[in-house]
């Protein structure tokens, strides 16, 4: 291929730069020029490019450091591309930019919304007979893309969640007075991340005793009964709860008023806080809520090696598929076995993936809806395996310089 | 010495078990029996003991794992010992227990309240001519004990805070729209932990741009002006704020109603949330608040090696001082130099330490009260240095079994 462009879009994870590292290493081997567009599709429109061939002297060091760095080295955006029958001009402009820069392939690393963008570009390209290849590269902490066993970034966030949950199990075990700790975990519609709290259980730890995912309608009365039942067994009850739990009518369980972002996604806060207040009101005992917040998606110092290696390979394979002439596709992970864990990389059509959401199957949640099943634990376990090597300077992890984002 | 007892008290840190490990290793070398009382002074009263001589076969493995495990292996309590002229019976009972178990020294690992307890025991012992030695071992994430350069647990919490702050600096840098992130950090009266956020700054990162500690009265108008000034320079403003910031009249800046625990400490929540709502109201832009909560004090997987080594040595030295006949004392750290960092261990009298609080000196906070000085950074820097070696199993850190706390 002549030149290629890669960009990143959507919310950050600790693995999105590993995929970028994969695209770059394979791209630099096989193409003339490798451009990175800053801030997703916006950077393509404004031709705000970094040229990675300039990094050649120190490229292997750079790629290694990039692989373990959190968030998006190229910045991100939340621009949603209109359909080409709604706004043809933007498509014409993008393709003119591609042509001018002799671009043979465009790689977009992102989640649901980003796959919609790249899918639309591929479809438009097809309609005008363009030879440019459009390939999506998956990422999302939420693990909610379809056609793939799991998504880059999820395993690392799951590892941080399980580790913090284990550490909080130690922290909360020290007092003899009855108390409840509620840990709110990311997940608007899909409970995958919250389910990862179950991985903290081991030969001495049964915490969290209760896990509530958005896939099952949340009932406050049943919840209080669940908490009472646990308190009859122990003084220390820890509960993992998704930010997106809703009652049977679909109303979010929350303390604050929900606001909507421009994709129509509801910005949530306060499921944990709402339950904290409920427990205090109903049971009159000490209760604390902890929101893992953005820390859970950027804790790169404890990334899963499995996750970063897979993410890097997905980036490499995206380039390989493009070299083989594929377009309108996304490399996906197909699990071959759990023990030993083995995943291979195939690809799926973007048109099948975009704008769809993969929720936790009901059968992986217990009948009462307050825990996950062993099948879920077996699914999650391999994804947090392995530790990465981080260099520390002055006591802090050495990540890649992001001064160019300012 | 014949037998000794050790116990832990107060809020957990990731270094309190390192001090326990130090007491145990030195105690097992020099004493007949080493008892651990479960749940602090309550466990002494009820003779709820673990006998560590029983661990002898696997003691070195156990001590190594104990050193890196978060929270309190022996559990904790929040019992405040009354003065002996208020309740003589409790003292008589405690000394009878000591006598019955042939105890020559009692070691209490804890913070302000725990030093009050051990100080009272030492004073009572003196008054009845008891030969039993009473030695405190410092710990507190808050770094607010006097007579010591810093306290065990603080450096590890500071390392997690600085690391998370750096990771959040990456996470928040990716979008082009103006936004503000407020990170609420522990510290009721002392701003040491919040100051540690400044360590995240490096050759490419200036975040957090603003830092507010409880030592300086918080002014909402000045705060909004500070935020505006930063927003005129960049789209990404990150602010570190202590949970305990107060206005000039001493009222906490918070969203929720404050409640008091039985020591009269105010339980806070919501400084970050209150400022988030203030920014949205006053500036009308995207703002998020993140509360690091208990995660910051139990993130043992990223403990500071300097902190754990010092904590272990303080535990060892506590036993050595007792062997030398000292009582009513606490081993303390005295910093000899910053570069190279060097600290030695001396001891101070408990009567001088108990119930006092070491705040951040005003001169280590900038004149405007919205940042810390370079002197503060130089003080903090050595305390987060060094990484510990953690064993992982199934992708998670291997900590010491705490089943005996249930």
TrEMBL record, chains A, B:
Active site residues per record: 142
Record site: Important for catalytic activity and substrate specificity: 113
Keyword Metal-binding: yes
Metal-binding listed as a keyword: yes
Pfam families per record: PFK
Keywords: Cytoplasm, Glycolysis, Kinase, Magnesium, Metal-binding, Transferase
A molecular function (GO) term: 6-phosphofructokinase activity
Activity regulation comment: Non-allosteric.
Catalysed reactions listed for this entry: beta-D-fructose 6-phosphate + diphosphate = beta-D-fructose 1,6-bisphosphate + phosphate + H(+)
InterPro entries given in the database record: ATP_PFK (IPR022953), PFKA (IPR050929), Phosphofructokinase_dom (IPR000023), PKF_sf (IPR035966), PPi-PFK (IPR011404)
Record-marked site positions (Important for catalytic activity): 139
Primary residence: cytoplasm
Binding site for substrate: 140-142, 186-188, 243
EC category: transferase
Stretches assigned to the Phosphofructokinase domain: 3-288
Residues reported to bind diphosphate: 11
Subcellular compartments: Cytoplasm
Pathway(s) the chain acts in: Carbohydrate degradation; glycolysis; D-glyceraldehyde 3-phosphate and glycerone phosphate from D-glucose: step 3/4
Any GO BP annotation: fructose 6-phosphate metabolic process
Biological role stated in the UniProt entry: Catalyzes the phosphorylation of D-fructose 6-phosphate, the first committing step of glycolysis. Uses inorganic phosphate (PPi) as phosphoryl donor instead of ATP like common ATP-dependent phosphofructokinases (ATP-PFKs), which renders the reaction reversible, and can thus function both in glycolysis and gluconeogenesis. Consistently, PPi-PFK can replace the enzymes of both the forward (ATP-PFK) and reverse (fructose-bisphosphatase (FBPase)) reactions.
HAMAP family with a match to the protein in the record: Phosphofructokinase_II_B2
The family this protein is said to belong to: Belongs to the phosphofructokinase type A (PFKA) family. PPi-dependent PFK group II subfamily. Clade 'B2' sub-subfamily.
Stated name of the protein: Pyrophosphate--fructose 6-phosphate 1-phosphotransferase
Gene it is expressed from: pfp
């Amino acid at each position: 291929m002549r030149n290629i462009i890669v960009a990143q879009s959507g919310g950050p994870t600790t693995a999105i730069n590993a995929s970028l590292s994969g695209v770059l290493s394979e791209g630099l081997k096989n193409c003339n020029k490798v451009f990175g567009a800053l801030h997703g599709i916006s950077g393509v429109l404004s031709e705000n490019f970094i040229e990675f061939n300039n990094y050649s002297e120190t490229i292997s060091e750079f790629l290694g450091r990039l692989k373990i760095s959190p968030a998006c080295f190229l910045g991100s955006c939340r621009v949603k591309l209109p359909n080409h029958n709604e706004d043809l001009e933007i498509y014409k402009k993008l393709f003119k930019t591609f042509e001018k820069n002799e671009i043979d392939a465009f790689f977009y690393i992102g989640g649901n919304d980003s796959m919609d963008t790249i899918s639309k570009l591929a479809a438009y390209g097809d309609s005008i007979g363009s030879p440019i290849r459009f390939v999506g590269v998956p990422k999302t902490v939420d693990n909610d893309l379809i056609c793939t066993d799991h998504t880059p970034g999820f395993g690392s966030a799951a590892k941080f969640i399980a580790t913090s949950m284990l550490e909080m199990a130690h922290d909360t075990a020290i007092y003899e007075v009855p108390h409840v700790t509620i840990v709110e975990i990311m997940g608007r519609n899909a409970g995958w991340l919250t389910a990862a709290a179950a991985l903290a259980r081991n030969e001495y730890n049964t915490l969290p005793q209760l896990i509530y995912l958005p896939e099952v309608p949340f009932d406050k009365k049943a919840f209080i009964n669940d908490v009472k039942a646990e308190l009859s067994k122990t003084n220390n009850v820890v509960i993992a709860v998704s930010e997106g739990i809703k009652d049977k009518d679909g109303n979010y369980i929350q303390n604050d008023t929900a606001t909507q972002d421009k994709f129509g996604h509801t910005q949530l806060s306060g499921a944990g806080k709402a339950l904290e207040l409920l427990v205090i009101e109903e049971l009159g005992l000490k209760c604390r809520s902890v929101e893992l917040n953005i820390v859970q998606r950027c804790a790169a110092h404890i990334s899963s090696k499995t996750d970063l290696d897979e993410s890097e390979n997905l980036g490499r394979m995206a380039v390989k598929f493009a070299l083989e002439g594929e377009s309108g596709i996304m490399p996906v992970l197909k699990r071959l076995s759990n023990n030993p864990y083995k995943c291979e990389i195939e690809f799926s059509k973007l048109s099948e993936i975009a704008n769809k959401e993969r929720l936790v199957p009901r059968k992986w949640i217990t009948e009462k809806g307050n825990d996950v099943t062993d099948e879920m634990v077996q699914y999650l376990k391999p994804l947090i395996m392995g530790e990465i090597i981080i260099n520390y300077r002055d006591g802090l992890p050495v990540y890649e310089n992001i001064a160019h984002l300012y």
